[in-house]
Amino acid sequence: MVVFKKPHALSDVPLHYCPGCTHGIVHRLVAEVIDELGIEGKTIGIAPVGCSVMAYNYFECDMIEAAHGRAPAVATGVKRANPDNIVFTYQGDGDLASIGTAETVHSAARNENITVIFINNAIYGMTGGQMAPTSLPGQVTQTSPYGRDVNLCGYPVKICEMLAQLDGPEYLERVTVNNVKQIKNAKRAIKKAFQNQIDGKGFSLIEVISSCPTNWGMTPQAALKWIDEKMIPYYPLGVYKDRSAEKKGDEQ
Amino acid sequence: MEKKVLMKGNEAIAEAAIRAGCRHYFGYPITPQTEIAAYMAKRMPKIGGTFLQAESEIAAINMVYGVASAGLRVMTSSSSPGVSLKGEGLSYLAGADLPALVVNVQRGGPGLGGIQPSQSDYFQATRGAGHGDFHMIVLAPASVQEMAELTVKAFDLADKYRMTSMLLADGTMGQMMEPVALDDLKISPMPEKPWATTGTKMERKRNIINSLSLVPEELEQFNFARYEKYAEIERTEAAAEEYRMEDAEICVAAFGIASRVSRNAVDAARELGIKVGMIRPITLWPFPAEPFKRSLSTVKKYISVELNMGQMIEDVRLATECRRPVTLCNRAGGMIPTPEQVLEAIKAAANGGEQ
Fold it and tell me: Which residue of A176, A237, B11, B284 shows the fewest CB atoms closer than 10 Å?
C-alpha cells in the first residue's frame, strides 16, 4: 500500500529553497489540491520574482514567469484569453504587497476569477534579507539594521485586512504552515480558493504566513516558533472575506 | 468599386485589429490615442472579445503578456509617457519571445510634455524600448489607410517572428480623418502556436513562458539566436516608399506625418527645377538601408525631416555610411514643419550644392 507519494502536479526535481523554508510545504499543498481537483491539464501557474521565481520548474502544469509584481495582470490576460483555464499566481510579499500592490488591489477589485497564493514571510529572501512591506515593526533586516523604524519607513501592509474593504474579492483567508494542524488548515483554504475559481466565484487569495530561517537568522525550529510568537499576533489568522458565506448568512 | 468609409486614424487601427482577429485589448486612457480604447470598448463586447481598462499602463502590457502567452492576438495602445511605462513589459515580451501589437500615437516630450503630435519616441521605438538587447518591428503609417494596413501587417509579422510589433504613429495621424477601404485588407490566418500556455490537457509536457536564464552561457545563446532572427528580418522585411527618386540629387528622408509635409515640398521644389526626391521609411526597425545605399549613385545631399530634435537622422547617416552630408529640418515639442520650411531646406541644399 502506498502511504506517501509525490503529487503528480509537483515536478520530480530538487527544489532550490533553503533548509527549513516553508515554500516547499506550500508548493506541495498547491500540487496536492491540483491533483485532487483533477485540474492539472487545464491549469496555468504564474510565477513571481523573488524566492519562488523558479516555481515554473516545480509544477507540471503550463507555467508563465511574470515580471516583478505583475502576476495578477498576467493572470488576468491568461484567464480572459481562455476562461476555461484554471489560473493561479504564486507570489511573495515584496512581489504582491510592494511592487505589485496596484495589480493586487485591482485584480481583487475586479473580482478577477483567479487564485492567488501569497507567501508572507516578512522579508525579501532572494536578494538576501532586506526589509519587506510586511516586515514587523522593529524587525532587523539588511536594510533596517537597527530594526524597522515605523517613524522612518512606516507600518507593515496587511493585505487581507486591506482587500477585505473592497466589494470585489470573493474569498480572503490568512493561514500558516508552522505545524501539522495548520498545514491541514492551509490545504483546506487553498483547495477552497481553487474550487471557487472552478465554480466561477471570482478572486480568492490565501495569505500563508511563512518562515525564512536563513534571512531571519534562526534555526528552522526557532523560525516556526517565531511565527507563533511574533507574526501571528500582528497578522491574525482567519477568514477575512467569504462572499458565499455572507450570502448564505443573509438567506438564513 | 471598393467601399470607402471616413474614419479617424485611431479608429482605423482599432477596426483593422479586430478584422485581423484581435479579440483582446487592454489600455489606459491617454491623449491623443483614446479613440482606440473607446472603439474597442464599444465593439469588443459585441463580438465576444475583451476590452479591459487596466489600472495602469504597466498592468495593461502585462495583461497583453498573459494573452500572448495563451497564443491569441492581443494589443494595447498608448501615447509617449504611457509607452515609457510599458517599457518593462516590452522587455519581458522580447525576453519571452511573445507576439503582440503595441501602438504608440506619439505626443511631444520629454516628461509629461504636451498632447500635440511628435516623432520624438523614434529612439525609444527603434533602439531602447526597455532593458536588454532586443528590437521590436516598428511600422510607421503615413495615412489612415496605412494605419489600417500596417495594423494587420504588424500582427502578421509579430506572429511570424514571435516578437512585438509597434505601430509608431503620431497625434496628427491618430486624429485625422480620411477615407479608408477596409474590405481590401488582406487577413492571413494566424499560425499554429504549439508553445502557448493553454493547458497540457495531460497530453503533452508543460509549456513554460519565461525570460529568466541564470546561466550566462545559455542566456548568451538565447541572445545570439534572437539576433539571428533579427538579421533575417533586416534582410527580408525592411520597407520604404521612394518618391521621385529616379534622378534625385537631393533626398528628403521622412516618415509618418513628416512625409506628408515633405511630399508637398518635394513637388514644389520639382516645379522650380530642383532634382529632389523622398525616401519614406515604412519600417523604422528594420531601417530600410538599401534604398538609401542605392540613392548614393545620384544623391549629393540628404535632409532628414522630423518632428523631434533629430533622431532618424542617425539612421540616415548610418545607411549612407556618412558619405554625403545629412542636414536636419525639424520642429519639436508638438510643432509640425510646414511645406514651406521643408522647401526652404531643399532650396538651401540645392544652392549650397552649386557653390
Answer: A237
